[in-house]
Every structure is written in C-alpha cells, then in structure tokens.
Write a structure and sequence with these properties.
heterodimer, A: about 220 residues, mainly alpha, B: mainly alpha, rod-shaped
Chain lengths: ~220, ~270
C-alpha cells in the first residue's frame, strides 16, 4: 500500500524520531512551491502520523527552496546514494544522526570551521589532522556530539554503567532535563541503592513524567 | 530401464518394410493404450479430434493431449531428426506402413490388445470404410506372436517389450523422463514472462492522481519510482543527501571539525 510504503520509507530514516528543526540548510521556500510539491501527497499526508507528516513537509520545504539546478543535482545525488556500499551508508547515517542531535551553535561552528579549514595550506591541514588522529578513539568519537551532549553522556556513564541500546536516547533526554540539584539527588539516591537495583530505578524514572520525576528526586534529598 | 537413444540417421525412413513395420510396432508399444489408439486413428486418416474423442469415449482435450504426446514420442523414436517437428517423412512412412498392412498381420489385428481390455469404439475402426488396419499391431504380445511365436521372450532382442507392456503407468513415467527438463524449462520461462509482464506493464497514467483523490481505492498502490517528480520527498535519506550536497565532506569530517572548532589555537 502506498501509505504504508511511505510510512516505512520515512520511518526508515535513522533520525526519524529526531526533531525536525535539524534539517539541512533550509532557505525560505515559496509557500506556493511547497504546496505544489506536496500536491501528490495531499491525501496521504493527512493519514500519516504527525511526526512523519512533519518530516514530509520539511522535505517539501527543503525541496521548494532549491533552485531547479539544485533539485536536479539532488535527484542525481539521491540516485548515486543508492549505489554506495551498505557499510558506507550506515556510517554516514550514524554521523547524520549525530549531526541532527547537535545544537545549532555547534553545527554552525562546524560548518564555519570546515569552510575556513579548506582555505588553509595542505601542510597545515595535514598537521591538524595528525593531531586529531593521535587522540584516543573514544575521545575522537565523543566529538560527534555537542558539548552539552558530551556532558550528559559522561554523566550517564558515571551514574549507570550499562544502559541498553534502546534506552540510550530516552536516558540522555531525561538526564538533559535534570538541573544540578536533581542530578545531585539522583547521584545520592543511586549511591544508596545496591548496584543490582540501580538499573530498575533508572527504568522507573523513565516511566515517570517530568513532574513525578522531580518529585521523586526531591523526596530523595 | 535405460533410455533408448534416437535411431541412427535414415533408419526408419529407408529401412525395409518389414523392419520398419517392426520398428513402428515397437514405437507404438511404448505408448499408453489411449495414446496408441488415438495415434492409430490419426495415422489412418481421421483428422477430426471430436470424432476420435467420440470413438474412444474421451474428452477432446484428452485426445489432443494424447495425440501431441504420442506424436512427439514417435518422432523421437522414428524420425531421423527428432528435434525437427516440421519434418514429417517419418509420419508418412507410418501411414504408408499402416495402409500396407499384410493380410497375415491383419488377421491378428482382430484380437483385442492383449495387455489391455478392448477399447470402446476400437472395433468400429476396423469395420469402418477404411481398410482393415491392425489396431493392436503395437501390442508387444501380438508382435511376439506374429513375428516369432516360438522364440522365448528372454532371447528376443527387444527386452523392453515385456517390461513396458504390463504396467502402462511405468511406461508412461519412463517416457516422461526425457520431457522433464523441457517441462521445467517451460515452467521457468512462463514464470519469467509473468514477472516481466508485472514489472514492465506501465502503470495507469492517472494512478498518482487517483491515489490522492479516491480514498476508497482497494487495490495496492506502488511507490513511485525514484525518477517520479514526487519521489525525492519520500526518499528516506533525503535530508542526509541534501546536507552532503550543501556541505560536501562535512559528515565525513564531523568529529574532526567539531574538535577543531574547540581548539583555541585554531581560532
């Protein structure tokens, strides 16, 4: 079914559950052009889940903001993308996933740094790359995240030695919402729990809404 | 049971009449009873399948299938060029042999097929306006009786006659073997043709519009190909590819660039 295929295709994006504000550069698109781009999906988009519908509209806005030459180039690039090896595509998707989770300031800095870096002499570029390659692997990979995310990841590692993969994003989101007082309360509460029960406590926190979580951590102080 | 090889070139067409008749008897003996009767009627000039069906109390479709099978089998055994269905000199020779049936053999033909019970309508063949032709000339027992009645079966040079006749089913299965590769190839070709038809059949020109405007549509809809105008919006990696187009190399160097942007000495 076409709606089902559309849902699967859109949902197949690794960052499908991520906020749509992290789209590539979106120039201001002509509303009429956006409407025209969405005409074939007018009926379908009403039946899509909200998240997928917004993603489809974001694609339409990005598409409409492109010049005809850029649209043609994008078609060509999409075709070439399909020819890439699976492992290469998976690696790029992981990096795009990280890109979508970055805060706008970090993304902007990365873009500007890249533009400036490309103007440097080859020998200077090489020296900087050698310095980066000399870092430990874990430290290099940590720079796929913005500074605040890196801090939350560090906190998660400190509090919960093991977090199942399916809980990574939810746990990081929960920790990101905590203020310093709540983090201190969580650290204190976990210290009093036997290690075997710490993960169960994390699970219970995930099942709470923000208010209940705040109340729980407030009571723990 | 070994599969008999096709006859060497020019054997059946040019061999003496007695030997050719014997060869024809052997070939007909390979066929099932129904195939043999259908083929004999056809060789004797009956061209109407419905009449053959009526005589043998068969469905016309069964007659057509039996005739096709029998014709192919006889061609494999009697034709100089078995793979050439257009060549019918062997068929003419068969007809000639049947029309020139000697009286002695014709006398034996009045008996029903020894390996089977008499076929309804078979006697009408011999009593019709056409000359009396031995319907059971292919019967292995009749052949043995007419050609060498005193020869023990074990010493005859036609070992298949005694093994193929008693169980018609075995004979049929035996002759199906050479056709299996062809049948399998035919099945594969049909499957490929169906797949090709499904893939290459053009979609209805208003498929996209209809899909949008008629929610009660029940038939499955295809995702538009990547070349369709609306396809880029539904591409799962739309944003990723667009980002790579707008900032080449950014994703590949993302960790490096984030690290670099935090280096005071680089600023």
């Amino acid at each position: 079914m076409r709606p089902l295929a559309l849902v699967l295709l859109l949902a197949g994006l690794p960052g499908a559950a991520l906020p749509l504000t992290a789209q590539p550069d979106q120039a201001v698109a002509d509303p009429e052009a956006v409407r025209q781009a969405l005409v074939p999906f007018q009926e379908l988009s009403q039946r899509l889940p909200t998240m997928l519908r917004e993603r489809l509209h974001a694609h339409a806005r990005a598409w409409a903001a492109l010049s005809p030459e850029e649209q043609a180039q994008l078609r060509e690039n999409l075709s070439q993308w399909e020819t890439l090896e699976t492992q290469h595509k998976l690696a790029l998707r992981a990096r795009f996933d990280a890109w979508e989770q970055m805060d706008p300031a970090t993304r902007e800095r990365a873009i500007q740094t890249g533009a400036h870096f490309s103007t440097l002499p080859e020998s200077v570029q090489q020296r900087w790359r050698e310095r980066f390659e000399a870092l430990p692997e874990q430290q290099r990979q940590s720079h796929l995240f913005d500074p605040s995310t890196r801090a939350v990841i560090g906190l998660a590692r400190e509090l919960f030695p093991f977090i199942p993969a399916q809980d990574h994003n939810a746990t990081l989101a929960m920790l990101r919402e905590l203020d310093e007082t709540q983090v201190a309360a969580l650290r204190s509460r976990l210290a009093r729990l036997p290690p075997a029960r710490r993960d169960a406590f994390r699970q219970s926190l995930l099942e709470m809404d923000a208010e209940a979580r705040a109340a729980e951590l407030g009571a723990a102080r | 049971m070994p599969v008999p090889a096709p006859p060497p070139p020019d054997t059946f067409i040019r061999m003496p009449e007695d030997a050719a008749r014997h060869q024809l008897k052997l070939a007909l003996g390979r066929l099932s009873r129904t195939q043999r009767h259908v083929m004999l009627l056809r060789l004797r000039g009956e061209s109407d399948l419905n009449r053959i069906a009526a005589r043998l109390d068969l469905q016309p479709a069964a007659v057509r299938a039996s005739l096709a099978f029998a014709n192919a089998q006889l061609r494999m055994m009697l034709s100089d060029t078995p793979q050439d269905p257009e060549r019918n000199d062997w068929l003419l020779r068969c007809q000639a042999l049947l029309m020139q049936q000697p009286p002695a053999t014709a006398a034996t033909s009045e008996q029903p097929l020894p390996d089977t019970e008499p076929v309804p309508g078979t006697s009408a063949i011999n009593s019709g306006p056409e000359p009396a032709v031995p319907v059971d000339m292919a019967s292995p027992a009749a052949t043995a009786e007419s050609s060498s009645p005193s020869t023990p079966p074990d010493t005859t040079p036609q070992p298949d006659r005694n093994t193929s006749a008693p169980t018609e089913r075995t004979t049929t299965a035996f002759w199906l073997l050479p056709w299996l590769p062809g049948a399998m190839a035919l099945l594969v070709l049909i499957s490929l043709a169906l797949l090709a038809w499904q893939v290459l059949s053009p979609p209805a020109p208003t498929a996209t519009t209809t899909a949008v405007t008629s929610p009660e549509r029940s038939e499955p809809e295809r995702m538009p190909p990547s070349t369709a105008p609306e396809a880029p919006l539904t591409a799962p990696d739309f944003s990723l590819v667009l980002l790579r187009q707008q900032h080449p190399g950014l994703l590949e160097d993302l960790d490096f660039l984030v690290w670099l942007s935090e280096q005071e000495s680089f600023q």
